[in-house]
Amino acid sequence: MAPTPSSDESPASTSGPGLTRAPDSSQSKIRRNVACISCRDSKVRCRASPVTGQPCQRCAKLQIPKLELLEQELRSIKEVVQPKSNAESPSVSQRNGTVFPIQPSQLPPATNGTVFSLSSNLQSPQQPQSFVPSATLLEKTEPTKPRMLGGKLVSGQDIDWYFENILAQRVSTGNGHPPPFLQHNDTKCKDTIKDTLAPELLTFFELQKFSNRLHTAMSAQISANNGVPETIVKMWEAEFELLRPLVTHVETDFSRFIMLVAQLEVQAYYYISPPDQRPNFTLNTLRTYNTSQNLINTALTLESTCQLLTHSPHWVYRALVDASCILLSTLHSTAAPQHLSSSDAEVVAAQVLSLLKTCSVRDNDLPTRGSIILETFWSVRHLLPKWDIPVGAWPDRIGAATSYWCLTAFKNALQEAKNITDGTQKGIDAFQQRFPGSNGDNNESNVNANTDINGQEQTMDSAIDPLQGIDWSMIIDDFGWIGEGPVFLGPA
């Protein structure tokens, strides 16, 4: 039986245009069916490997790890830049300075294992050893162990979180992305609403972003130094003065109010500066006092025109508490302004107490309780010595550092005043029991003239306790302080 001719040798049919070809041979069918299963499933052309028993070229590439593919590519590049012959590094002639002695057509295939050999001008007298990175990836087999850092025990989960964030931020910029931290671009939004939104709200929005940056920076300073140097606060105050004309879209009482609130937030950090790093503390104290006074006056104006304080949100009340504490604490210190008389101080205290009561919306809320604290302290201040510093601070409270210090000082002062009056009353009772007939002749109205510790004359009725109207349980117990229950005004 004659063999079947191939397709090229098969005679053409003479039956007109519809030419037919002889059926393919069994050898051709076998050649078409040698494609591997993966290539047939993917419906791609299969390129068989020249080595018998090895997978096709496509499957071999898919099975090669990414690191190995990268190594092969680097070896190919290295062979083009610095070709090899017989796996030996060619010596570059010092006489002719030829860098590429072998033409690209003469390059050997990139099948050797040499990677990144040193160039001729960096080679040491000894033969450098080639470094071939391992394709094996190290996998984490156990959780991170806790470690002692700076005297504190840091858990393994925290360590993982720290380094994952650092790695993400370091890698992001190399990939063309901003670091992954809280940020937003509000330029388009402001351009859209600048003609419809109240200009004061845009000013408030810009100042809030400034305050966020301020408190973030101050928190870092406090964490590192337990305080903020005076020079740092001065730099932020200078930046605020540069920002003021840029964010002021219209001059109104409310825009001035929010400007004073932001300015007071900056100046309050002068009280957190360490004692050895504030040479201009007296001057800065007076400037902060004036800012607080201007804030109170502007708030009074806004209340008379639009009842801002009657409908004020919490942040307005907090700003007024900060200013009020600074004013009353400074007036009860040796750093009080010299030009203020006792009557002027009474006017300032009356304004402060009036504002805080105006912020109240229901009985026994925070404005009411805060005004009771300040009013009670101011009513018994003559029984107490003046403070050496105008205002102190609790650095850990950051934005509310001065308020918490003042409220704690007021509480301690009220306790001291209570002890003084209790002791005075006991002394009067003992004197009357010992000399029952010595009363009434020399004191017609039963009034004793006293000179307090500050040198101020006070009249005190021995039969009436000047602190009898004070709710001590509310001041000492209800108003929890740090370490003694709830904290006044809540978290900072």
Give a short summary of the structure.
This protein has 492 residues and is mainly α.
Explain what you see.
The protein is mainly α and 492 residues long. It has a domain at 196-412. It is built from 15 helices and four strands. It has helices spanning 26-32, 37-42, 57-63, 66-81, 156-174, 187-193, 199-225, 230-247, 253-267, 281-306, 314-331, 342-358, 366-379, 401-434, 472-478, and strands at residues 147-149, 152-154, 447-451, 457-461. The strands form two sheets. Strands 1-2 form a two-stranded antiparallel ribbon. It has a two-stranded antiparallel ribbon with strand order 3-4. A hairpin with a 2-residue loop joins strand 1 and strand 2. Helix 9 runs antiparallel to helix 10, helix 11 packs parallel to helix 13 and helix 11 packs across helix 14. The protein starts with 25 loop residues before the first helix and ends in a 14-residue tail after the last helix.
